Input
Amino acid sequence: MKYSKHFRFLFLSLMYYNSCYAFVFKDKILFGKRRRFRKPSRFPKPILSKNKIIFVLKSKTAYFNEPTNEPTNQLLNMSKIQDKELGFGTVEQRQRRLMTKEGNYNYIRYGLPLNETFHIYQFLIKISWKRFFLLVLLWYLVVNVLFTGFYYLICPSHLTGMVFNSESERFMEIFFFSSQTLTTVGYGRINPSGWSAGLISSLESLFGLLSFALVTGLLYGRFSKPSPRIKFSEQALIAPYRDMNALMLRIANQLESNILDVKAQINLSISENGSRKFYTLSLERESVVFFPSNWTLVHPIDANSPLYGLDEAALRQADPEFLIFIQGFDDTFYQNIYAKKSYTMAETFYGGKFMKINALNEEGYPTVNLGALSAFEKVTL
Output
């Protein structure tokens, strides 16, 4: 059979249950069919490279040669094919972890001025409550001391009603007058007289109104921000699974909120041939409809896994980092929520098994012990 340079015909018989065919013209799918998929019309786009046509289907990849005189159609190990891009760019061999334990990016940005890389609203929304209230208190004190200095240096005699016996007592009288003016309380014992004192007190009142309006908005933003409260186990485990081993970690819903349609993804960053490679690991179950308690994520280490054949010593030498991404829908906030986590070998235990944390109480209700989410026992692999 002869083929023109722009036409290619493929018949793919993929492993397990996946099967499809397509007719390709000028790097585009003209027609095709996929069976046993929810959306048959979404056919994978081919990637043409020299004499090979590459199809990426779900988490599996197949290579097929173009029709030539050499009948060498080769189906490669599909789950071991390296992902093109996770968003971390080119990564060198030795470095710190890509993400912190809490799931924040571990990158340092430089080369631009601070006003182009720092956003005050984002900073105040993301910091902890303790730091937020400390900054609000510090801002309140600094502003009051600043305006107290203005009153004290410019117009101390234009504030009537003060009672003091020393300069320090007069300073404190002016400080509390400034606090009352900033918050627009105004008890009335001390009053500004003259245009200088009146101008400063007017500006301070305006500044106080704007400041407290901003703080109120920040408080609302922090309270209304979606908080998934998905708890991760402190360790990931290499544990026995059926007749093989598996990578396991456990997550749980900390709150009594209804989280629906939860999806999980585990990405692997591992050292291979002097550089970092990235893979998306296949899971025993990639999603659950309801998430009332806990869920153990399981990646079977079979022949299709990049971890296949690595014992504990080889795994530590490969310096893996497991990047976890969880997403779901929270009906309390009525929007999607996300959670991230990172495990290195320092947080991965080789030869462990999670202990059971689910049970029934005396009344027959299912219970989960979230305090023992990370509890495991040592086993021999």
Summary: The CA atoms of residues 6 and 26 lie 5 Å apart.
